[in-house]
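Bit of a strange request maybe. I'm writing a small parser for C-alpha cell strings and I need a real example to test against, not something I typed by hand. Could someone generate the C-alpha cells for this chain?
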Amino acid sequence: MRAIISTLFLLFSFSFALQAASGCPPSRYGRWTGVVRKVPAPAGNNCRQSMSVEAFGSAKKSIEGLSFEAGRLAMAKQVGASNCLTTRQVMEVLDLFNFEDSRLDFAKFAYDHVTDTGNYHQVSAKLKFSGSVETLNSYLQTR
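Reply from user aminoacidic:
Good idea to test on real output. This should exercise your parser:
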C-alpha cells in the first residue's frame, strides 16, 4: 500500500513539474488549461542588463523553496528565459541542483541568456564530472 501511495505521489509531482515547465498556466480552479504562454526571451546573446541583486535573490529563494529537482530546473529555466543573468548568477543557480544532469541542462540553457559570455568558461567549475565538462565545452563550441 505504501509503495502504491509513494508511486502515485511521485507521478503526480512529476506531472505537475512537467506542466509547470511547459508554461501552461493553471485555471482559477487549479486545473491546467493547456494554453501555452509565450514569454519573450532575450534572443541569442543580446543580453545587456542582468537581473538586479534583489530580483535575483528573490528568484533564487523561489527556486530553493521547491522540493523536487524537476520543479527547480523548470523554475530556473523560466527565470533565465525571461531575464538576463551574469555568469556568476548562473553558477549560483547551479549550486541549487542535486543532480549533474540538471546542472548540465541548465548550464547549456543559460548560455544564451548571459550578459558576459566571455566569462562563461567559469561555469564548468560547478560541474562535478569530466564528461559533463566536455559535453558543455563541445556545446559551447557550436554556439
